[in-house]
Amino acid sequence: MNSLLSALSFLTIIRINCKFNAKESVKFFPVVGLLIGAGLYGLSFLKEPFSVFFMLFYLVFITGGLHIDGLADASDAFFSHRDRDEMLKIMKDSRIGTFGVLAIFFVLFAKLLGFFVVKDKLFYIFLPAYSRFSVVYLMKKLPYGREKGTAHDFFKEFKFFDFAFGYIIVVLSFFVLPIRVALIVNFAFFLYVFFIFEYFKKKLGVITGDMLGFSIETTEALLLIILSLVSVYAKTWW
């Protein structure tokens, strides 16, 4: 329970008095994602366009903007066309550049569009869980790129059980979501996580907290856009 509370305290603005355990909290990241998704699911029952606005606001607010900040910093670094060391310096810079602003705009707009189009409300429970499951995978596959940093204490030698909750959520999706939705979501998710791992590996060979935030935000945006495209252009079988 202490590990779950640690994960909840780190990934959200909810602060719970507990003995913080960074390394053991990582396995619970997808579970915290489900809890965040439960709030998203509840807001989806509001009438449009209020539901769309409050769902978008909620995802930013509940995390304290932590992942949005990472998205902006990582985007500034990736599109700077600098070498590895310079990109790491750019991510450490608290100032936001043009590419960071553009990344925030396009990701938020993609989510806004997705919330308007995707009508399967149960999917919203799973959306934040998948994005946080991607973080666990990337933390296992890539070493941390700094001697110190916000995410430093979360890195360790990952075991199978560290992925158990994530895989349980994947399996659960096939029982809760319509089978066509579950198939599309899981295929897109695993394909994108593999792609982003290869991209990070080629670009830097390491990972940082900002890059993990980039992964969370872009995973959510991508899944929403893909489901939106399928729901609009594949009406004959959707």
Q: Can you describe what's shown?
A:
There is one protein chain. The chain is an all-alpha fold and 238 residues long. Helix content is 70%, strand content 0%. The longest helix is centred in the C-terminal third of the chain and has 25 residues, at 179-203. The radius of gyration is 17 Å and the shape is globular. The model has no long low-confidence stretch (mean pLDDT 91).
Query: Helix coverage percent of residues?
Result: 55-70%
Q: What's the gyration radius in Å?
A: 17 Å
Based on Cα principal axes, name the global outline.
globular
Number of strands: 0
Helix run count: 11
Distance between the amino and carboxyl termini: 40 Å
| Computed structural class | mainly alpha
| Average residue pLDDT | 91
H/E order of the elements?
Answer: HHHHHHHHHHH
Strand portion, in percent? under 5%
Number of domains: 1
Largest sheet: none
Poorly predicted runs of 5 or more residues = none
Describe the protein's topology.
Blueprint: H1 2-11, H2 22-25, H3 29-43, H4 50-62, H5 66-78, H6 84-92, H7 98-117, H8 123-141, H9 164-176, H10 179-203, H11 209-233
Q: What characteristics describe this protein?
A:
238 residues; 70% helix; mainly alpha
Task: Provide a concise account of the structure shown.
This protein has helices spanning 2-11, 22-25, 29-43, 50-62, 66-78, 84-92, 98-117, 123-141, 164-176, 179-203, 209-233.
